[in-house]
Automatic annotation (TrEMBL):
GO biological process: endoplasmic reticulum-plasma membrane tethering; lipid transport
Record's subcellular location: Cell membrane; Endoplasmic reticulum membrane
Record gene name: Esyt3
Family, similarity comment: Belongs to the extended synaptotagmin family.
Record's signal peptide: none
GO cellular component, one term: plasma membrane
Stored SMART domains: C2
Keyword rRNA-binding: no
Keyword Lyase attached: no
UniProt organism field: Calcarius ornatus (Chestnut-collared longspur)
Extent of Polar residues compositional bias: 503-514
Protein name: Extended synaptotagmin-3
């Protein structure tokens, strides 16, 4: 059984173990010959810095798994995600002015992304290697020396977080390390690729949050919730809503997304307290799904807590080279992003007195010590400002021609009126060495909305320049693919469905998780909206007055012929435009129920035939098989997850003359939440699609044994189409299978 997603690479770990002593020798040499002189040059106080002991220990880093991306990316690159774990016994000591500092052990783990691009037709076949962490890696350091001052809890945490921030500033997205492997390879576009898009998060409201405030240790009060939202290293905090377990925020946040797949939206809710804020639940949303769906408007259940739902509206904004999208937004939202590639500066003055409007300054300096200090080359950094946001570059020490090599992004509200303000400052004296203002309207004159040139510095010497590349891109909410299975907002626009009453029965349509998902219309006792937890009413339960459920998964997607065959039941009352007709209960009762979970699990045949019993397809009075699906299922004990590999389907039955675009949808019943649903890509115009896509459900083996796999093959058809959506389904009772051994069957 082959699972192509995350692969164990024991052979690579064996190579690392064998090569580690040699790597340690190289690093010892690097510390002494490269790092030590650099540290000494940083400051006068560090001139006596000496490494007294450098030993990288016996324990080497371990790679727990590698995930390779080849299909979702450019054909000229290979992307690898390495799950790195390092619990090291390294020991490094150094002396600084009679003080002894040291490290005697490091723990580091995180996911390192490695991108090999561009692929070449001649040796070395790869132009460059790019490395970065998707999120901040977890880091713990055992300090030594200085009477273990750094082991004091407060200082220890502070020093670890400072080093984590140091790593993040260089190695966590959007920062990258790019190493060219071929001579004369231009790596600027590899180090600073244009972001993939922007995610706009509307934090609307929450409900049924857990109570965290205690009075006198017993009486529970209402909490004061706020939200922290994160993508990569960028974090925003919402306002705090006082004394409310159903808070309404109505706030909007925007994040630049650099890598998809890879980056996720993290939301944590906290109760604000005078001493320590209490955790109230969290949420992790894959941005790949949002990018594909364009707009998602959902109530999401909070994890790591006992109750609570969070209402978010998520919009994916593509970056387009189109000036028509740059009109100013009346709500104050961003309409574009500006990407600044800060390269270098030339001929900076040694101090701000040296030149004033091109002439030598007249200010006299009496202090000789200060004069010597000014004769040094400047240590410069850059402040970049657009609107009310200012970002700071790194500092280049003692150079009048500094090279920064950094990228910055800014949200732009009005490209026609806003400007980029540049100020170069000297770290030693905090004085301005030059300024420049670039109106963004200049970018609009260029068809590609790009400027790559030297800019003359004002309030500096006459031959002082700064070299930058500016790229402006409009933000565009694209219309979703009408043939794509839509989640979120399209479903939520449907109003309440009034179903015809018959024989005293009053029916209502409800979400599969009525207890957890707040209905859209809370004041209606008998009618609820079509569920918005899935695509366009994909999964509906029907209930009559006795409460007995009638299992059916294609309620809203019946053929028009169904209505013609049953004219006596009468049409349902008027539906909103775009909604498929919903049959009344007697129609549902005439449809045969799918085979039971137990009967499917005990099939003597090794072939899962797609069930046609709930699709009401007959041929000469007999039930027709709808084709077969090949599945590989096993439980991965190390990852604590159920792994389902969808290989492909064969001999599917077309639902229309125009052909079908099949995809596979998977639930691990009884969980039917939108966030838990898995689905493959859509294969166009084929009855024998090949997927080879892997999905994981992170549950304990004990829990998985109690669950049922619900797998449906569906037709991706236009939202307003009357074609049948479901092509067939199968259910597998996992309690009857040997999941550790696994099975692969048609």
């Amino acid at each position: 059984v082959h699972f192509p997603d995350v692969e164990r690479v024991e052979w690579l770990n064996k190579v690392l173990v064998q090569a580690w002593p040699y790597f340690g020798t190289i690093m010892e040499k690097t510390f002494k010959e490269v790092l030590e002189p650099k540290i000494r040059a940083k400051s006068v106080h560090l001139k006596t810095c000496t490494f007294t002991k450098i030993h990288f220990g016996e324990k080497c880093p371990r790679i727990n798994g590698i995930k390779a991306y080849t299909k979702e990316i450019d054909r000229r690159q290979v992307t690898l995600d390495l799950q790195i774990c390092y619990i090291g016994d390294c020991e490094i000591h150094m002396d600084i002015s009679k003080f002894n500092l040291g490290v005697k052990g490091v723990q580091l783990y995180g996911t390192l992304r490695v991108i090999l691009e561009p692929l070449l037709t001649d040796a070395p076949f790869v132009g460059a290697v790019t490395l970065f962490f998707m999120q901040k890696p977890h880091l713990e350091i055992n300090w030594a020396g200085m009477s273990n001052l750094l082991d004091v809890p407060g200082i220890n945490v502070m020093s670890d977080s400072l080093i984590q921030d140091f790593i993040a500033a260089r190695l966590v997205l959007p920062n990258r390390i790019t190493v060219p492997l071929k001579k004369n390879m231009n790596i600027a576009h590899l180090r600073f690729p244009v972001p993939q898009g922007v995610i706009r998060v509307h934090l609307l409201e929450a409900e049924n949050l857990v109570q965290k405030d205690n009075f006198l240790g017993a009486i529970r009060g209402k909490s004061d919730p706020y939200a922290l939202l994160r993508v990569g290293t960028v974090q925003y905090r919402s306002k705090t809503v006082s004394r409310d377990l159903n808070p309404i925020w109505n706030e909007t946040f925007e994040f630049v997304v650099h890598e998809v797949p890879g980056q996720d939206l993290e939301v944590d809710l906290y109760d604000e307290d005078p001493d320590k804020d209490d955790f109230m639940g969290s949420l992790l949303i894959s941005l790949v799904d949002v990018m594909n769906d364009r707009t998602v408007d959902e109530w999401f259940p909070l994890s790591k807590t006992t109750s609570g739902h969070l209402h978010l509206k998520l919009e994916w904004l593509s970056l387009v080279n189109d000036q028509e999208n740059l009109h100013e937004d009346k709500k104050g939202l961003s309409t574009a992003i500006l990407i600044v590639y800060l390269e270098s500066a030339f001929n900076l003055p040694k101090n701000h007195f040296e030149y004033s409007n091109g002439e030598c300054g007249t200010k006299k300096i009496k202090n000789n010590k200060y004069l010597k200090k000014m004769e040094r080359e400047p240590s410069s950094f850059v402040l970049l400002t657009v609107g009310n946001k200012t970002q700071k570059s790194k500092t280049c020490n003692f150079s009048k021609d500094p090279t920064w090599g950094q990228a910055f992004t800014f949200f732009v509200h009005s490209a026609h009126s806003q400007s980029l303000h540049i100020e170069i400052k000297d770290k030693e004296r905090d004085s301005a060495l030059g300024t420049s203002v670039v109106c963004l309207s200049h970018l609009l004159k260029d068809p590609s909305m790009t400027l790559d040139q030297r800019f003359q510095l004002d309030h500096s010497s006459s031959d002082s320049f700064i070299k930058m590349k500016l790229v402006l891109r409009a933000l565009n909410v694209e219309e979703p693919d009408p043939q794509r299975v839509k989640t979120g907002v399209n479903a939520s626009k449907l109003g309440p469905v009034h179903v015809t009453e018959k024989a005293g029965n009053q029916q209502k349509f409800s979400s599969p998780q009525v207890s957890k998902v707040p209905p859209m219309s809370k004041d209606s006792a008998t009618l609820e909206s079509l569920p918005k937890k899935d695509s366009g009413g994909e999964d509906l339960d029907t209930k009559d007055s006795s409460g007995a459920p009638v299992p059916c998964e294609t309620v809203s997607n019946l053929d028009e012929a169904e209505g013609k065959q049953n004219p006596e039941h009468g049409p349902p009352s008027a539906l909103p435009s775009g909604a498929a007709a919903v049959p009344t209960l007697p129609v549902l009762q005439e449809m045969r129920v799918a085979p039971s979970v137990t009967s499917l699990g005990s099939l003597p045949s090794s072939c899962f035939e797609l069930s046609s019993s709930n699709l009401d397809i007959t041929h000469n009075g007999t039930e027709m098989p709808l084709g077969e699906i090949q599945l590989t299922v096993r439980y991965a004990s190390i990852r604590q997850s159920l792994v389902v590999l969808v290989n492909g389907c064969r001999n599917l039955v077309p639902s229309s003359n125009r052909g079908v675009d099949p995809y596979v949808r998977i639930y691990l019943l009884p969980d039917r939440r939108w966030t838990s649903r898995k689905k493959t890509s859509v294969k166009k115009k084929t009855l024998n699609p090949q997927y080879d896509e892997k999905f994981e459900f992170f549950e304990s083996l004990e829990n998985v044994k109690k669950r049922t796999l619900d797998i449906a093959v569906k037709n991706s058809r236009p939202f307003i189409s009357q074609e049948r959506k479901e092509l067939g389904k199968v259910r597998i009772d996992l309690s009857r299978e040997d999941l550790i051994k696994g099975f692969a069957q048609w």
